[in-house]
Each structure stands twice: as C-alpha cells, then as structure tokens.
Amino acid sequence: MNTVSIVDVAKHAGVSVTTVSRVMNNVDYPISKKTREKVLKAIDELQYTPNKAAQGLKNNFSDVIGLIVRDISDSYYGEIARGVTTRASELGYLSFVCNTGRNPEDELMYHDILWQHRVKGIILAAGGLDQVDYKNKLMNQLARHEKSGLNIVSLAPQGIEIPYVMINEFEAGKKITEYLIERGHTKIAFIGGPQKLYTSIERLKGFKSALDIAGIEYNKDYITKSDFSQNGGYEACKLLLSKVKDLTAICCANDNIAIGTMSALREHGYIIPKDISVISIGDINEAKYMIPPLTTLSIPHYEMGKMAVDVITQWKEKVEITLNASICERESVRTL
Amino acid sequence: MNTVSIVDVAKHAGVSVTTVSRVMNNVDYPISKKTREKVLKAIDELQYTPNKAAQGLKNNFSDVIGLIVRDISDSYYGEIARGVTTRASELGYLSFVCNTGRNPEDELMYHDILWQHRVKGIILAAGGLDQVDYKNKLMNQLARHEKSGLNIVSLAPQGIEIPYVMINEFEAGKKITEYLIERGHTKIAFIGGPQKLYTSIERLKGFKSALDIAGIEYNKDYITKSDFSQNGGYEACKLLLSKVKDLTAICCANDNIAIGTMSALREHGYIIPKDISVISIGDINEAKYMIPPLTTLSIPHYEMGKMAVDVITQWKEKVEITLNASICERESVRTL
DNA sequence: TTGTAGGCGTTATCAT
DNA sequence: ATGATAACGCCTACAA
Fold first, then answer.
1. How do residues A202-251 score in pLDDT, each as one tens digit?
2. Hey, what CATH class is A169-299 in?
3. Could you tell me if B62 lies within 8 Å of chain A, comparing CB atoms?
4. From CA B299, how far away is CA A287, in angstroms rounded?
5. CA–CA min distance B35, chain A (Å)
6. CATH of region B6-50, choose from 3.10.310.40, 3.20.20.70, 3.90.320.10, 1.10.260.40
7. Cβ neighbours of residue B141 closer than 8 Å, sequence gap 6 or more
8. What residue is closest to D3 (Cα–C1')?
9. In what order do the strands lie in the sheet with B223-225?
10. Cys bridge to B193: A24, A42, B85, B200, which one at CB 3.0-4.6 A?
C-alpha cells in the first residue's frame, strides 16, 4: 500500500505540512508565489490526494450524504437517487445509498451505520410505517441525531414531526380520483399500497374523499391492497377482477401497480382504455412508454432528490417543503 | 456536537481504552466476564458507536465499496445497484453510488474521489468507451489503483485488460438474432446502442455474425443506433420505419430500446407480434409487464452486482467471470 | 487479564 | 510568509 501523505509532499517540496495544507485548501492566506508553485509541483509529481478519512476525523463529519431507500431498483427511488447523487456531486459530496429491501430492521441499522460514518445528513426515502415500535425507534434515532447535529430530511410522510420535502399524498389520491369522476366514471376501484404505510394511507384517504365529495357510494369490494410492486399490482388486479365485474376505471396508488394492473387486465382480455381506464401516481420513466401510455400524477422525484440535498447541506430548522404534482395526461383514461 | 468516543466509554467503565476496543471488536482475547459486562454497560449507557473515519484512518481503508454506474434511474443499473448494496450490507460494507450521467469526465473524477475515501474497491458499471483518450485515462487510473492496492472490477467490456464479471456480449447479440432466424425471420432490423461503447459494438457484431452464419444478406438500412434509452429507442425506431417497410422483426440491443421501439411501433399502428416481432437483451423488471410481455435475453444483473462485491472483498488477481445468459421467452416474438 | 503510548493524515492554534 | 505541534478517535505493539 503505497500512500502518499501531506508529509511526503511537504518533504518533497521542502516546506512544512502547514504550507501544503494551506495551498490545498486554497484559504485566503498569504503564500508567496514561489512557495505555492513548489508545492503545486510536488503535489502533481507525487499525485497527492488528501485522505478523506483523516479529514473526516479532524472535521468530525465527512463530505457524504446518506440516502435510505426502499428499493433502489424501483424507478421511483431510482429517480430520487439520481437527483440526490447528481446534486451531491455538484456540491462535492458523495452518497451512500442504503437499500432497505422494505425491511424496517435494516433501515434502523442503516441510521446507526450512517452516523458512525459521520455523514453530513440522511435523506429518508423509506420508513413511513404506521407501527408504534417502528415509530418509536425512528424517533429515538431522530433525537440522537438531533443531539449529535446530524441533519435528516424525509421524502415521505412519517407520521411524526420531521423535516420533509414531499408532495401532498392525500391530495394526490384525491386528484386522480377526481380526474376519473370528471370524465364520467363512478364504478372506480382502488388498488393501494401496503396498509401500514403512511403514503398508502394518505392516498387512499384522498380517494375516499373524492368519492365522498362527488356523492359516489363507497363500495368495499372495490378496494384492494398490494405492496407497491409491479407483481403486487398484477396479483391485486387479478383478485379484484375475480370479485368485481362492472368496473369502468381503476385508481392505482402508484405506477408499478398500474403496470402490473395493465398486464393483468390484458390477460383477462380487457382493452385499455376502451373497456377500462387506468390512472396512477408517480410518472416514473416507463409510464410514458406503456401501451397505452399511462395517465398518471407526475411526482417530481428527481427534483425532490436534489432539493433534499440542498436541505441537508444548507441546514435550517423546521423545513417543510410541499411540492406540486399535476396530472400528466396520456392515453389510459377514457371519457365516458 | 456531542460525540462520545472510546475514551469516554473507558472512563465511564473505569477501564482502559484498550479493553473497550477489545470488547468492541470481539477479538478472541481473554477478558474477564465482569470487565466485559462493565464495558458493555458503559457502551449501552453512553450509546457509543465507533467513528468510522478514525477506523478508516487507522486501517488505511474503509468499509466502503464504490459503484460507478451510467444512470442509476435505469433499471438495468438499478438491479446491479441492488445486488451490490445488498451483498455489501451483508458483509458490513456501505456503498458509494456514483452516477456518471453518461459523462466520461465525471466518471474519471469519481475514481479519484473514491480513492480519496480509501474505499475497499470500485465496481465499474460504466465506461467501456472505445476512445483512445478515455481508455488511456482509465488505464492510468488502473495503474494508480494497482500501485495503491485498490481493487477494481468491471461489469462491462472495457477494451482493456481488467478484472471482470459479465456476460459474453457478442454471444448475447448472436443468440437473440439466432432465436429470430430459427423462427423464420430474415428481414431483421437492429437498433443498437452508442457507437463508441464496447457493449454496443459486441452486441452488433453478434447480430451480424448470426446473420452471416445463416446466409442472410446484410442490409445497411436495417441497422440503426440509439443511446440505450427508452426515448432513444423510440426515436430510432421511428427513423427506421421511415426508411424501411418490409421488416418482420427488430433486434433491440437492450430492453430500454425495446420499450421505446414498442411504443413507436404502436404509434405506427403495428401490432406486436402479429405484424412485427421484437426481441432484446437485459430482462429488466418491466420487460415482464410490457404489453405484450417482452421476449428478451436474461442478464443476471442482481447476481452480477453481488458477485462483484465478492470479487472486491475476497480479492484475487486476474478475475475473469463470464456469466450465463439465456433467452426468456414471452410473447413479443412470432414464429413465421 | 489489563494498561500505556505511539501513530494513522489532516487541520488549526500558536509561535516565529 | 512560514513552521512546529497538538488534537481528532481508533487500534495495536509492547509492558506490566
């Protein structure tokens, strides 16, 4: 292991480490042109690059941001990760991407590890579990972090007070349902996400609210749950179709569900949107290329990721940013 | 900033830091039960967690793996990232995910930064550019890394000697073409990836080879390029359709291209696979849920990611692992 | 079985 | 304008 340190550079240039450090960090400190050049030359010749571990030890935090996501292979989180890594990189940060695989235990563990690495902050694109034990643990973590000066921002509702950058999930569910209602639909099913997830809960509430306002009777059989995955959407839709026959539209709580739903619908011989309309929430990359192209509520994932990094790096207390989401009209919804 | 260090624990427990360190690291060192318990209690009470920066400084490397990808929001890389982060986490590592946004300059910069962080190794799911200047720079990096003992493994052909875990890209292009030929197709178009990318180059070579072996005449108009994105595939297909009319099948160099292609085909009124067949390479998550479900060569991205981590953590010289890829038959190809 | 002390590479404080 | 040195938190030879 042939590592060159600041001491090597100092020796090579015939100056002190202090001087090298000053040159490296470009502080507005008077250094003679000649000395600076000597140092720069030595740095170049020795291919010196500072050791981040040492810097981190000294500064008590590293140029690193932690991102916790449910599933990095899901486009939803992929776009967030792209936003985070892009902006982080612009600001000289690197990003730890932590994949929970939808496992809350792992998620809590990641908080610890991230803290051990003295990251600048944590962006939480996971959690949101409506379970006392999970929520308590998360609050503990939050308290610890608060005490230790570690910044945290959430991209999804957590059911507790926490700085956030997100859309209004309730409005999201409401908007897509209203969109359908405005186009004459009344027999509308809803395929939701996990029952214990605040995101699902809010979107479902929005759905019910829209129905309620329009005076459409609420039918329990029309509501199914899934796990927010394509496969989950596929299974949920099949289950739904086995129970209900007179649907004219399906509200999917996210695009993955819609993708699975469309696949199941096709298997059953339904043509979209002639026989049945489909709408969802997310507008992930593939929505545009579905057949037919999917009408969906556009969530600015990439922007959310970028903004979250800004929140972490320019820390202020009490950040509560609600982003706009509007429906992207394509061809999966028909007007009755 | 209220950080508790090993010294605090030692004081609190009334022992030396050495003892605390030994307890923490669970080395098979004889420690009296009473002492161990005292230490454990102190650790718990103080909520002590070791500082990774300090550990990294001491050990000269950190429990971190760097992953460089072209586009983290692309399912192709998403699955790789999932494999990497999952396996890394199992082994106690964290992963820096570096997104090049398909920019070679950024990519080289990431090599530097990763080295500064003294990562255990770098997994390269990018690069592969057939350009002298890029290749030279990459080789420089490799040489530097070699000298410094930093492990590197590539998941794609780079045109230079480098440890790798990947599929045979040439065979991939050949296999999907043969699949079409076996089913009676002769008017076969090819929509490839970027011209300068070894992955594209190899897949195209494979296509041509299969044609050649089958004695099918090679038609230049049948071959188009894209950028491996859905949008690129869409545009390329539209261009193709404007020039060529008698196609019975299209070979897409990856699934994204196929997704865009199917979308374009639909716009032109073609029904898949009745009017035209589509096949591709990758088998990303959404392939299964396309309408119709996409027949594609299945690349084990997740496994590749996992194996790459093993290669990094259990380093041996000269790793050359070629993975199997077989065609996943679905409904986008018709037998003539 | 337990403890002392030096050093990893950097930055910051305090001389000169 | 430049340099010596202490400190960050951890691990590990070496002592005891």
1. 999 999 999 999 999 988 999 999 999 999 999 999 999 999 989 999 99
2. alpha beta
3. yes
4. 23
5. 25
6. 1.10.260.40
7. B108, B111
8. A16
9. B223-225, B188-192, B249-252, B277-282, B295-298, B326-328
10. B200
